[in-house]
Amino acid sequence: MKTRITEMFGIEHPIIQGGMHFVGFAEMAAAVSNAGGLGIITGLTQRTPDDLAKEIARCREMTDKPFGVNLTFLPSVNTPDYPGYVKAIIEGGVKAVETAGNNPAKWLPALKEADIKVIHKCTSVRHSLKAESIGCDAVSVDGFECGGHPGEDDVGNWVLLPRAAEELKIPFVASGGVGNGAQLVAALAMGADGINMGTRFIATKEAPVHQNVKDAIVAASELDTRLVMRPLRNTERVLTNAGVERLLQKEKELGANIKFEDIIEEVAGIYPKIMIEGEMDAGAWSCGMVAGLIHDIPTCKELIDRIMSEADEIIRQRLAKFAA
Ligand SMILES: Cc1cc2nc3c(=O)[nH]c(=O)nc-3n(C[C@H](O)[C@H](O)[C@H](O)COP(=O)(O)O)c2cc1C
Question: What CATH topology corresponds to 4-207?
Answer without folding.
Answer: TIM Barrel (3.20.20)
